[in-house]
Amino acid sequence: MEIANLIPFIEALIFASDKPLTTLEILELVNNSPDMEDEKITLDKIEASLDGIAEKYSADFYPFEVKQIGGGWQFLTRKEFHATVAQLNGDKYLKKLSAASLETLAIIAYKQPVTKGEIESIRGVSCDYSVQKLLEKELIIISGRNEKAPGQPLLYSTSKNFMDYFGINSAEELPKIKEVIPDQAIEPTVLKTPPPDENDETPEALSVAESGELIINKETGEGESN
Fold first, then answer.
1. DSSP, res 21
2. The pLDDT of residue 200 is above 60
3. pLDDT at 65
4. How far apart, in whole angstroms, are the C-alpha atoms of residue 201 and residue 186?
């Protein structure tokens, strides 16, 4: 079958599916279709067809596009129509994650699989509520237990819905930490010091006596007067 004739079948599958379809799932569905008769479609033809479909709907003429996110292919409304389409779904797509939930989700995304105790040690506060909310929204899953830790606590990882929510195909596509957090300049630590011995008349002691401050160089560990 020519790619031009194959494309409509793949479009129909993606459009009708209630979840993202992977390339291999599309290949299997196409080859199991009675409409294909006895012809076996190769993976190369499926991939070429998908490239053609993505290019076709990349035109500004369409209010939607076909993209591979969340681990598979799906039709997506363009972002400029989000507010209009969101009216059909009530608050489902209008509710935003709280700052606490985003912090918890970020830790899970970058440290997964991770226990609740590890999350709390990073955030410094309890994360029970945030974890529960993220589980309810199906953005994270329980992926197992840490059998090496006392009590074998649950392990949490991101879900396929997480990838769909943020428009990525895997956790590897998340921005690197150094890309979002600039290198922090190392500032010297200023330590307040008690006045030196009145009988100590060295230049260093006199300098400290005048300023009452001593700067410690973090790299050498040596003291410097300010």
1. B
2. no
3. 92
4. 32
Structural fold of domain 99-180: Arc Repressor Mutant, subunit A (1.10.10)
Distance between CA atoms of residues 67 and 88, nearest Å: 22
pLDDT at 223: 46
Given a contact cutoff of 8 angstroms between Cβ atoms, the answer to whether 74 and 17 are in contact is yes
Rounded Cα gap, residues 63 and 45, in angstroms: 27
Characterize the bridge pairing of strands 213-216 and 223-225.
Answer: antiparallel
pTM of the model: 0.56
Strands (E), 120-159: 140-145, 154-158
| pLDDT, position 84 | 85
Residue closest to 139 by CA, chosen among 175, 174, 109, 170: 109
Query: Each residue of 146-163: b (16+ CB within 10 Å) or e?
Result: beeeeeeebbbbbbbebb
The fold of 3-88 is Arc Repressor Mutant, subunit A (1.10.10)
